[in-house]
Design brief:
The complex is a heterodimer of chains A (about 475) and B (about 500).
Chain A: H1 9-17, H2 23-41, E1 44-47, H3 49-65, E2 75-79, H4 106-114, E3 117-122, H5 156-164, E4 169-174, H6 180-186, E5 189-192, E6 212-217, H7 220-230, E7 260-264, H8 274-289, E8 293-298, H9 306-321, H10 340-351, H11 354-367, H12 373-396, E9 399-403, H13 419-424, H14 430-435, E10 439-447, E11 450-457, H15 463-477
Parallel strand pairs in A: 2-3, 2-4, 7-8, 7-9
Antiparallel strand pairs in A: 1-3, 4-6, 5-6, 5-10, 9-11, 10-11
Helix pairs in contact in A: 2-3, 5-6, 9-11, 9-12
Chain B: E1 8-19, H1 59-71, E2 75-76, E3 79-80, E4 83-86, E5 96-99, E6 106-115, E7 118-131, E8 135-140, E9 147-152, E10 159-165, H2 172-188, E11 201-211, E12 221-226, H3 229-248, E13 256-261, E14 266-272, E15 282-283, E16 290-291, H4 294-302, H5 308-317, H6 322-328, H7 332-345, H8 349-371, H9 382-393, H10 399-412, H11 416-423, H12 431-444, H13 446-453, H14 458-470, H15 477-488
Parallel strand pairs in B: 12-13
Antiparallel strand pairs in B: 1-10, 1-11, 2-6, 3-16, 4-5, 4-15, 6-7, 7-10, 8-9, 11-12, 13-14
Helix pairs in contact in B: 2-3, 5-6, 7-8, 7-9, 9-10, 12-14, 12-15, 13-14, 14-15
Classes of the chains: A alpha/beta (about 475), B alpha+beta (about 500).
Bound molecules: zinc ion.
Chain lengths: ~475, ~500
């Protein structure tokens, strides 16, 4: 019973349903695991054992009452930009180090409704700006596969927690790759849903037109279970899709014979590690073996511009989104400097980290009078072109397959002082984000002992096809729920 | 050098911010009616600008701005959107205001005003939707003398409509008249209380001078902090003189913002345009764009009431004077009440209109003036007032008694018929009852009696009047006159 933390969420559900163990026992197992490895992994900013045990008791009552859902009693990690009433929510920033929200985010409400158990608020790059969690004001998380390496980011804490057994499944958020890249680097599955599939109400905003909450889990089925739990219309988010969505679990275990897969050549470029390339090639062979039609004769010429587009639009939106943190209403406040304006300046100077300041400056510049047309407006136009290229591709292909990241996990400290090198780590995940398309990263093996991720991109709201492809691939490869030894 | 006074033309444009009377705020569910409420009681995470919250557009506010645009003869944009206007200020909870930049809901309209009998058409550049800010209350610590500020977030996020005019006004009087007309229309269509003193109707003015005959604009000064129509007028008069004096002395007017200081009756410089903000507008990513189908616009147009100008013309066509028609249509309540009384009288339309106008402008107007109350609080229904007017018309009571009955109706809420019957206020026409009165009057007015006998006709009127007074107006004056002639015959 002591290794319950090794279970996937769906395995745990079976155990709970058949009364092999209780939700409290399952939760205690995860909490014990956290006690053992958290000092080395640092997946969490805040752990919430008390909340978790209380929720676990309620979960057991639900099993007794017969009102349990697939997530009832399942210990989950929640990225710390997802607002949780009464539980400190920092977005990885000093400026919110003492912020205890009086309201719940939509996705957390959904977790509560499902009866899930929250064991902690996961570490992240400050305001989700980063690809390694090194920009967290609370210190970096460590990759469970090798503690001297980064877990990726910005949802690095969520991915590390899943891989380290410090939860069974987690919520992250993706703006330009923040779910998929850490999932790839930690050898777990991560899905960035179509923009509009999951409500952003209560998600501390970074790039409003890009942000989307999504699941990270040890296999495709867990990710699908979590995605089904948080998806759907929310009238509090005007960008949330009002159309009814089919449950993705119906698309598990399907035959994908005849699935048309496009492999865009712009994703196989210099800078990509040989080991990563080799695993992707093997993965494509797996798909062919499953009867898919794999076509490498696909060009998405605007792919290379996605990085520039992203680093204009996201910082522009962030420059406005982060303007509210002035120390007047909540959070960190430096009031030792006399006038209100001086206090506001010092609050922001002391409350924000270097990367956040860099992006606020980028965005402020891009929106400034005289530069708006050349930067922000131009970026929006290129965004449309990127979108059109994807739409043309989806006329010919059901899904697109690419690597998730050009590299495996890199050492802590290796890129933190070189922002551009850090930004390049997201070049494969940015285009789908910029277009608002759904995508998933699934493990496709190891390179030099470290996990490699495969990205599957689908058309708008065509999560069913990426789920079918990912699940079939995962089964064919036989890689699910592989945890590193810690 | 001798300064020669130049003949300057004044150019004025106005920007009006007006709060809408929607149930809830612009982007959240909080009640927008916070007047009199404790500070920070009409708030939620959304209007407090807390992390992670999102705006949702108030449908009623959008209907209101479309109606406003239509009432101001504007085009309604088929495609409109919200933008973020970025500027840091502690009363702005998100650090940006959701407003509209390049695609306002309404544009290119006009409003006719009348000054000194001449009609002038003032262009409306645009009408756009935005959210109001919180309120900062500046205080001084009574002990330490230190200044501090309090924040009341109740106002934050309430729907605010900005109406921008073309620089088409040429005098402070025209500017005032524009505001009067605009307020009248906003109240007519029921979108705003439009009360400058309560702060739900705010006006900034742009004013510049140029030598008459020159088409290029002079550099403009923006005047703020005016809390009444009179203040707007006075501030513009002050600016006219100030700018003319500077220009006449060979100086130039720097582009700047000036604040009106009411107590001192002058404007003072607030900030120069050089330090103006770059608002870094960009499309609000949290909200969908707005598309106005022609059907929707037609629907809103159909909901518009008859507007003041049209109504005034129609009233005048019923034989009322221009002045009567204008006063009756000043407020929609008064015009509605007048029409209800007129309709209830059910006489020949012109006769009904004349009688209803006399009473509504006369007695009802006097009631308003003495009580200081709006017509909405007037306790007598149009039907009841029509009942009284008919009794006077039918000779059942004299008009003097009618006025007494009116007072009684206001005080007690009873119907005219009932008051007259129970209170002995009916007209006395019986010569037996009145003969004593007439004799008493003759006995008490020797001088008038002598005049009458000397053939002075005016004496009859005087004596009749005295008899009316004796009966508190209830006597039938015709019967009194007949009796006088008999008695003095
Ligand atoms: Zn509110």
């Amino acid at each position: 019973m002591s290794d319950l933390w090794r279970l996937t969420a769906h395995e745990a559900h079976e155990g709970l349903r058949s009364k092999q163990f209780t939700a409290v026992e399952l939760t205690e197992s995860v909490l014990a695991r956290m006690e053992a490895v958290e000092p080395r992994v640092h997946a969490y900013i805040t752990t919430t054992a008390e909340v978790a045990l209380e929720q676990a008791h309620q979960a057991d009552a639900r099993f007794a009452a017969g009102t349990a859902t697939p997530l009832t009693g399942v210990p989950v990690a929640v990225k710390d930009l997802i607002v949780t009433a009464g539980v400190r929510t920092t977005a990885g920033s000093r400026i919110l180090e003492n912020f205890i929200p009086p309201y719940d985010s939509h996705v957390y409400e959904q977790l509560l409704r499902a009866g899930a158990v929250m064991v902690g608020k996961a570490n992240m790059d400050e305001f989700a700006m980063g690809s390694s969690t090194e920009h967290s004001a609370f210190g970096p998380s460590h990759n469970p596969w090798n503690l001297s390496l980064v877990p990726g980011g910005s949802s690095g804490g969520s991915a590390a927690a899943v891989a380290a057994g410090e939860c069974l499944v987690a919520l992250g958020s993706d703006t330009g790759g923040s779910i998929r890249q850490p999932a790839a680097l930690c050898g777990v599955v991560g899905m960035d849903p179509t923009y509009g599939r999951v409500s952003r109400f209560g998600i501390i905003a970074f790039g409003s037109s890009l942000d989307q909450v999504g699941p990270i889990g040890r296999d495709v089925e867990d990710v699908v279970t979590m995605a089904d739990c948080i998806s759907g219309h929310d009238p509090r988010d005007s960008t949330s899709n009002p159309e009814p969505l089919p449950d993705l679990r119906h698309y598990l275990g399907r035959d994908i014979k005849g699935l048309r897969i496009g492999v865009p050549k712009e994703y196989f470029i210099a800078g990509m590690e040989e080991g990563v390339k080799a695993r992707i090639e093997e993965a494509l062979a797996v798909f062919e073996g499953l009867g898919c039609i794999v076509d490498r004769d696909l060009s998405l010429p605007s792919t290379e511009h996605a990085l520039a587009v992203y680093y204009l639009i996201a910082p522009s939106e962030a420059s406005a989104n982060l303007a509210r943190y002035d120390g007047v209403k909540y959070g960190y406040s430096d009031r030792s400097h006399g006038t209100m304006w001086e206090n506001m300046e010092h609050t922001r100077a002391g409350g924000f980290g270097a990367e956040v300041k860099r992006r606020i400056m980028l965005g402020t510049y891009a929106l400034s009078a005289g530069y708006y047309d050349a930067y922000y407006l131009k970026a929006q136009k290129v965004r449309t072109v990127i979108n059109q290229e994807f739409q043309e591709a989806f006329g010919r292909y059901d899904v697109l397959v690419t690597p998730t990241s050009p590299t495996v996990a890199f050492p802590i400290g290796a890129k933190v002082d070189d922002p551009y090198a850090m930004y390049l780590n997201d070049i494969y995940t940015l285009p789908a984000s910029v277009a608002g398309l759904p995508s998933i990263s699934v493990p496709c093996g190891l390179s030099e002992g470290l996990p490699v991720g495969l990205q599957i991109i689908g058309n708008f709201f065509d999560e069913p096809r990426i789920v079918m492809a990912a699940h079939a691939f995962e089964r064919a490869l036989g890689w699910a729920n592989r945890l590193p030894e810690l | 050098m001798v300064a020669v006074a130049t003949d300057f033309e004044t150019v004025i444009g106005l920007e009006v911010h007006c709060q809408l009377v929607t149930k809830s705020k612009m982007f959240c569910g909080c009640s927008a009616d916070y007047s009199g409420a404790e500070p920070n009681t009409h708030v939620c995470p959304v209007c407090l600008g807390m992390p992670g919250v999102l705006p949702v557009i108030n449908e009623q506010a959008i209907a209101f701005i479309v109606k406003t645009g239509l009432a101001l003869n504007c085009e309604i944009s088929p495609f409109s959107k919200f933008d973020r206007k970025n500027y840091p200020y502690p009363d702005l909870m998100k650090g940006y205001q959701i407003s509209q930049y390049d695609l306002p809901v309404c544009h290119d309209g006009w409003l006719d005003i009348e000054v000194d009998g001449a009609t002038r058409r003032i262009g409306i550049t645009r009408v756009h939707m935005e959210e109001d800010t919180a309120r900062l209350l500046h205080r001084t610590d009574p002990v330490t003398g230190e200044g501090y500020s309090l924040l009341d977030v109740n106002r934050s996020g309430t729907p605010l409509m900005e109406i921008v005019s073309e620089p088409d006004m040429r005098t402070p009087a025209e500017a005032r008249e524009y505001l009067v007309r605009l307020r009248q229309i906003l109240r007519y269509i029921g979108v705003s209380e439009a009360n400058m003193e309560d702060g739900n109707f705010r006006c900034d003015a742009n004013i510049s001078l140029r030598p008459r005959g020159i088409t290029a604009f002079g550099s403009k000064v923006e005047v703020k902090n005016m809390n009444s129509f009179r203040a707007v007028h006075d501030a513009l008069v002050f600016e006219q003189k100030r700018q003319a004096a500077i220009l006449d002395a060979g100086g130039s007017i720097p582009q700047q913002t000036r604040g009106w200081v009411d107590e001192r009756g002058e404007t003072v410089s607030q900030r120069s345009k050089e330090s103006a903000h770059d608002y870094r507008y960009f499309p609000e990513p949290d909200l969908p764009s707005l598309r106005f189908a022609p059907e929707y616009v037609a629907e809103q147009r159909a909901l518009l009431p008859e507007l003041p100008d049209a109504r005034r013309r129609r009233f005048a066509s019923l034989g009322l004077s221009e002045a009567e028609a204008a006063t009756l249509t000043e407020s929609r309540d008064r015009a509605d009440y007048f029409e209800d009384v007129s309709r209830a009288l059910a006489l020949d339309p012109q006769r009904s209109a004349k009688l209803a106008a006399n009473w509504v402008l006369g007695e009802v107007g006097r009631w308003s003036n003495t009580t200081g109350k709006e017509l909405a609080a007037f306790p007598v229904t149009a039907e009841a007032l029509a009942g009284l007017i008919r009794m006077v018309e039918d000779g059942k009571v004299t008009s003097a008694v009618g006025k007494e009955v009116f007072e009684e109706m206001v005080a007690s809420g009873r119907a005219a018929q009932e008051i007259v019957e129970s209170g002995g206020m009916g007209q006395i026409s019986g010569s037996d009852e009145l003969r004593d009165v007439v004799r008493k009057v003759i006995a008490a007015n020797d001088k008038a009696v002598d005049d009458y006998r000397a053939g002075k006709e005016a004496a009859v009127k005087f004596l009749t009047g005295q008899a009316m007074r004796e009966t508190r107006g209830r006597a039938n004056p015709q019967v009194i006159q007949d009796l006088l002639k008999q008695e003095l015959g």
